[in-house]
Amino acid sequence: MRKTLLIVAVLLVFVFGIFGLPKGIGPSAWKTALTDRIHLGLDLKGGIHLVLQVMVDEAVSAETDNAVARIQAALQQGGFPARSVLKPDPKQPAVIQIQGTPADKASDVRNLLDSNYGNQYTVSSGPNNSWTLTMKQTEVQTIEQHALQQSIDTIGTRINALGVTEPTIQEYNLGTNQILVELPGVDDLSRVRDIIQSTARLEIHLVVGGPFATEQAAAQSVGGTVPPDDVVMAYGGNEPELQGQYYVLQRVPIVAGDDFRDAQPSVDENGRPDATFILTRNAGDRFYQFTSTNIGKSLAIVLENRVQEAANIQQAIRDQGRITGLGKDKAQNLSLMLRTGALPASIHYLQESVVGPSLGADSIRRGVLASVVGMLAVLIFMLVYYHGAGINADLALMLNLIILLGFMGFSGATLTLPGIAGVILTIGMGVDSNVLIFERIREELRAGKTPAAAVDQGFAHAWVTIVDTHVTTIVSAIILFLFGTGPVKGFAVTLSFGLFANLFTAVFVSRHIFDSILKRKQRGEALSIG
Amino acid sequence: MELFHDVNVDWLGKKWYFLGFSLIFSVAGVLSILFWHGIKLGIDFRGGTLVYVQFEQAPDLDRLRQAIDRAGIHDSRIQTYGTATQRQVAISLAQKETQESALDTGRETIVGALNTNYSSAGTANQGKLDLDNASQGALTQFLEQSDPQHLVATTDAAQKYASQAAAVLNHRDRDLGGIFSSIDQLNGVADPAVVNQLKQGAYLSGFHVFAADIIGPQVGALLRKQALLAVLYSLLGMLVYLWFRFELIYGVAAVVAVFHDTLITIGAFSLTNQEITLTVIAAILTLIGYSMNDTIVVFDRIRENLRISRRENLTGVVNRSINQTLSRTVLTSGLTFLTVLSLYLFGGEVLHGFSFALVIGILIGTYSSIAVAAPMLVAYQEWRGGRGKKAVLPAGKKARV
User: Fold this and answer.
1) Residue A312: predicted pLDDT
2) Which of A189, A227, B51, B226 is the most exposed place for a label (fewest CB within 10 A)?
3) Residues 454 to 513 of A: which have CB under 8 A from any B CB?
């Protein structure tokens, strides 16, 4: 009796796992209750699956760019100005080179560099009063990790602004600086791309020269080859006469990325859309200092590595400015980007999958049809082949299915199409334990044992085999889970849940039903097992 | 009802037939892999672009190929997808770009080629909205701008148009299977004013891109590596478990049998020129688990019988064990085969490769536990016996009963 109660309790708990508490009694209420509990994967629901690569090198480069500016200022202030402080090789963003420090102040320079940068950099001196600062590996890793985390956070906030339900945004393939983004129910890839991809890296640079008609002309203006602390950038705004032109800018921006606090789309005096930006306090102070000492020079506002606008500094600016020449969409996007925080580095796409809702709906229909047909075939066969004991097996199978789906409901695991295949396969393999037990019981009966003894021996012998077979299958399911991605993972999850459920139903439940039947039978009466 | 009653077959006596049978299938597969079709990897392992398109009219593949050729893509692979009545086509491109930032160009070129060369009314639709491929956002924006219901003054205009757009797209994707044959199909689904506006400002291109996969070369290489590791690790894991539960040779025999199944299944994919995708790998891992199950059931019985009858020679015990478990083997395989067959028949195109691998795998997996694993076990023990050593029997290890 206590066992019966236990089985009924398990049944109720897992039915609750599948449906929760429906808010009504009609079929539609049950259906919504079901879809609330069982999460469908992207392949069934439709949606977008993206794998992104964060170019963490850029974050390292931004950090050393900053350091270059600080070192220059520090040497100046200390009274031993260097001829140049720069990063010699764009491919090695972690290396800074200082050249031409005063020959008689070498130890002072060494002291200054060591005390200010020794924690982050390895400082070594070279010939002709030059120094090389190489960022320490641990520091590089910290910056990369931080850039990755910040990218995940930023993309998360942006996606939330889209209003997607249950998005997944997480680190992917540990150590490769990749991000997995899954957006169920979304099929508008270009909008998602716009939101995620536009790094909207906003920077303000000092203009060295320009505009020039060609890239060569721009390079020519600074002596043929562009010096390492300058950069040539194309115009990207919408002034017709500046299209296709180039500027030479100072490589290190005056303010960039994180320095911007907000931007609001606004309208200029001619009714054309533009945007107003606001700097953080620190950056505002810096910007004020710079603009007040450089009145008359030109500044370029750079958006995603293109010059949006170049203008003369007419007065000192503290923390607000205007960007003209943006379309309405661009201004809105920019404002969203700046409010949610800038991406610390740009993003490349490694993988994109879009599943339209029509495919998802078709897959569900087919998956359900295949399951029902497969399940019915097995149920009917067991009844025909094992008669009375077949009912026993069928009950165990159905309970198995309820437990499996209940598990899915409780754990919040995602059901994918391969997951449905896993369910069907579990039905097929779940029946294996029953067959093993029943065949053994038949053997024992043939050997002349009484029904009670035969059932006892049958279960005892089959148990060893059942444990072995389940453990090996669970081994492969776990490995599938560890190495698989997306839908395949869903398959591994349902397969493992199904195996656990099976241990309970085939061994415990089925045994209990046999026992209670035997209890009611007269001594010597035959057992119905086909 | 009973399938087998007191069978007494000398399975081990037929080991040369088995060996021949296994060799024919393995070698045929290996030859096909080496000299004929090779192993055709799916887009997830190769890297590349795969675009799934649903057509309103049955698509003419030659015309499609020409259209895509004209757009400058010459190495595309165009295949019908699903049954003919579904009018679906899968267009795939190998990944050429090493530049990950150019990932999307293949898809854009294909959609562009379809648009210019395939959509029925051509350039007359310039500037109109393609209702067959419109997204929720684009359709809402279109309605907001054209404002057919004159809601511009009201505060919830955006919301109302969004729900109209959702109703239209829901009808397209869930009721009509992704494609309209006429805008009149929207009568009764959306507001009449909206339907009218769509008739004026939108057109039907006659195709609908219902899914797309774009996989960069890096990801492809990584997935290849992971799939290979997953198969190797799961074989290793089982070997270790069987070593622990039985003896090393039992583990080795089981793993060889499973390897034999995997080889023949992959060979079958090569022979039938089907692609090996990520889900096929999942199926192969499943059949590894399944075939292992079968082998273990036989081995468990051998272990049990060896404990009972120490005098009997190994060949006799193994034969008896196979015969005793034969009805279980056939029944379980039959039932699992039934469920997998229903997957193969009703599960649709997405699961086609997966269920094909399992259909083959279950047949071969059942065969291999009787015809490969057991004879190998006996052959090894006899070889040891021939060198004057005692056979390694697991009977010494006490089975937990």
Assistant:
1) 78
2) A227
3) 460-461, 463-465, 468-469, 471-473, 475-477, 479-480, 482-485, 487-488, 491-492, 495
Measured CA to CA, the distance from residue A75 to residue A35 in angstroms comes to 65
The 3-state secondary structure of A7-71, one letter per residue: HHHHHHHHHHHHHCCCCCCCHHHHHHHHHHHCEECHHHHCEEEEEEEECCHHHHHHHHHHHHHHH
Going along chain A from its start, the domains and CATH numbers come out as 2-44+357-520 (1.20.1640.10), 57-139 (3.90.1070), 198-351 (3.30.1360.200)
Cα A392 to chain centroid distance, Å, stands at: 45
Helix (H) or strand (E) holding A350: strand A347-355
Set out the domains of chain B in order of their start, with CATH numbers: 12-41+216-395 (1.20.1640.10), 48-214 (no CATH)
Rounded Cα distance, A229 and A240, in Å: 29
Q: Do B282 and A353 touch (CB under 8 A)?
A: no
Q: Is the pTM of this model over 0.80?
A: no
Which residues share a beta bridge with A248? A209, A232
Residue B299: closest CA among chain A residues belongs to which residue?
A465
Angle at B344 between CA B339 and CA B349, to 5 degrees: 140
Q: Closest Cα partner for A327 from A258, A239, A214, A450? A: A239
A90: number of Cβ within 10 Å: 11
Residue B130: in which H helix or E strand, if any? Answer: strand B129-130
Residue among A57, A459, A465, A478 with most chain B CBs within 10 A, to mutate: A465
CB contact under 8 A, B351 and A469: no
User: DSSP letters along B300-321, please?
Assistant: HHHHHHHHH-SSS-HHHHHHHH
pLDDT digits (tens, 9 = 90+) for B249-261: 999 999 999 999 9
Question: Chains A, B: CB contacts under 8 A, how many?
Answer: 254
How far is residue A147's CA from residue A60's CA, in Å, rounded to a whole number?
A: 9
Contacts 24+ apart (CB under 8 A), A332-335: A332/A265, A333/A194, A333/A195, A333/A198, A333/A200, A334/A200, A334/A202, A334/A263, A334/A265, A334/A275, A334/A303, A335/A262, A335/A263, A335/A264, A335/A265, A335/A275
A165: number of Cβ within 10 Å: 8
CA distance B311 to B316: 10
Chain A nearest-CA distance from B123, in A, is 23
Q: pLDDT tens-digit profile of A291-302?
A: 888 888 888 888
**Residues 44 to 103 of A: which have CB under 8 A from any B CB?**
46, 51, 53
**Count of all residues that appear for chain B in the document:** 401
Question: What are the pLDDT digits (tens) for B342-395?
Answer: 989 988 888 888 899 999 999 999 999 999 999 999 998 888 888 776 666 665
Q: Would the CB atoms of B296 and A349 count as touching at under 8 Å? A: no
Give the least confident one: A485-499, B269-283, B299-313: A485-499
pLDDT at position B399: 43
- CA-CA distance, B341 to B99, in Å (whole number)? 42
Which two tokens mark A81? 């100005």
Distance (Å) of CA A254 to CA A16, A82, A201, A433, B293: 60, 20, 13, 71, 67
Bond preceding residue A90 cis, omega within 30 of 0:
no
- Is B222 within 8 Å of A495 when comparing Cβ atoms? no
Contact of A247 with A300, CB cutoff 8 Å: yes
Alpha helices, H only, A275-356:
281-293, 328-340
